[in-house]
Design brief:
Elements lengths: L6 H5 L22 H10 L13 H4 L10 H9 L8 E10 L3 E5 L6 E4 L14 E8 L7 E4 H19 L2 E10 L2 E5 L4 E5 L18 E10 L4 E5 L1 H18 L5 E9 L3 E5 L4 E5 L20 E10 L4 E5 L11 H4 L5 E9 L3 E7 L2 E6 L21 E10 L4 E5 L11 H4 L5 E9 L3 E7 L2 E6 L21 E10 L4 E5 L8 H7 L5 E9 L3 E5 L5 E5 L5 H8 L7 E10 L4 E5 L1 H4 L5 H13 L12 H6 L10
Parallel strand pairs: 3-5, 13-15, 18-20, 23-25, 28-30
Antiparallel strand pairs: 1-2, 1-4, 2-3, 4-5, 6-7, 6-9, 7-8, 9-10, 11-12, 11-14, 12-13, 14-15, 16-17, 16-19, 17-18, 19-20, 21-22, 21-24, 22-23, 24-25, 26-27, 26-29, 27-28, 29-30
Length: about 625
Amino acid sequence: MIETQTDEMVVEAAEEETSSEVSVGTEVQDSTPTADIKTTVNYLDPGLFNDVRVVKKEELVSDTLQEDIHDEIQKQYVSTFHDISENQVITGRVIGMNDNEILVDIGFKSEGIIDRSEFADGTLPKIGEQLEVFLERIEDESGNTILSKSKADFMRRWKELREVFEKQTTITGKIVRRIKGGMIVDLNTVQAFLPGSQIDVRPIQDFDQYLDQEMEFRIVKFNEARKNIVVSHKIILEESLKEQREALFKKIKLGEVLEGRVKNITDFGVFIDLGGVDGLLHITDLSWGRVNHPSEITKIGETLTVKVIDYDEEKQRISLGLKQLTPHPWEDIEDKYPVGTKVKGKIVSMTNYGAFIEIEPGVEGLIHVSEMSWTRHVKNPSELYSMGDELEAMVLSIDTEERKISLGVKQLQPDPWDKIEEKYMVGSVYKGKVINLTQFGAFVELEEGIDGLIHVSDLSWTKVVRHPKEILEKGQEVEVRVLEVSRDSRRISLGLKQVHDDPWPELIKYFETGKEITGTIIRVLDKGIILELEKDVEGIIPFGKRTKRERKALARNYKPGQSLTGHVMEVKPDEKKIVLYSEELSSDEKQTSEVDEVHEYLKKQEAPAAEKITIPDKADKESEPEEAGSEE
């Protein structure tokens, strides 16, 4: 039995059908009821029954009908029956039709019927017309003989396509729809599968462009059992291209300039149709400049003039070039862009160390981060620019061998450091903003791009500053005094404490020798105790000559925040410290005589307070304060 083709049958094919032969006898079945006969007569051709005589029931049992039939007449009657079996194509004659069916006489004991829907195009057969039909069933549940016109057409077309396949000739078909993996092709009644890879010699991006197109095909697979046909258009193209390719390779020359049409665009290049033969125009041969994608230069269908830069006759490959039709841009580059020339370009690449500017296709220059600003410390070009920005720069140097051009942007503006010494004179006071804090000092911006450094030692006259954050905050407005300016090293030294007068001459008078002072413990060290005194200064009480164990034991008795009293022994402005003496901390049995001498000296001392007292050498050495580096 032949079923109507579906997409699944075309692609995957249907199961092989089995056929069976049905033997037909000559027995006469029960006659149709009179009502049915009248109904049948109504839609049959009236002329068919002109010679029919109506026999009454009484006559059926008469002796006249039981006469022996002549042998010759009987042979003629039997010859009107044929050996008919299911699943075969036979010829019949249209004898009638109604709203749903077409009646066909196939020379069998009963007429066959064809569903009227098989004539969907509206072209109905005429009464008496001969038709090729397919016998689906000799007798269905209702006793009807089922015929099919479309399956007969399919079988007839199938036979024709078999001959096409065997002779390997081409056939025309129409692409009717797209399915997974390819397209469906109508071969006039029979549908075939066209794989996507067999449409063209090149990969296809848009399959829908082939819908409703008529093309020539070659049958590459013909499966009789599964009623499956696979066709190819690519094989026809390849045969045609082979002849053209052979002819082209016989006359092609290296360096020859040809004209072709852009057939396909990929990420790596463009395929050019040179008239039946494809050549590859690689992305690197499109332009002397940077090309991110070939679609930036050309488009499908465009006609290009290209140059043959290489070909392999054995592999039948042709390499083409577009940029080779123009001179190399680096020829006479020094004459086109001498040092000092202003150029314009677009940023095509950015790195941590600079930005590459395309001056013209194939010619790029580098603007190093150090050449972007006179005053600003640029760490990355993205701080100032973005990809695609167009800017002006100056040619600084050219290396033709390495094909490198150095460019600068800051050179287009005057260098503010050229007159920095005249603008920021030593000793002058300016206002600025703290822009950065480091371990060694604070950077203050005097104007945009111009900043100076306040070293930690220049933050306070009296306080020992270990980090600028103890005094300043980022973003704080401060007054500073210019201490030093260097145009060559591009540095400005600033002072915060220098804005005010040095308080130590007055502090020496205030902290006169022998004066009893009380302070708050800041830190307890191995060699002494640091106190915070009046006037925002620090004092130190050294432990003297004690063993390490004694010092640790003594230090455990004191904690930060406690009050402690001592006598002024020495004022040290350079170290921003006042050395104190405490009988409890600075004496022991070995130092008794020396301490007595100090006490006696303190009673008799009448020297001015600003002068340094003289202490016996031994006692002086034992009472020396720690260096700043020994503090925690």
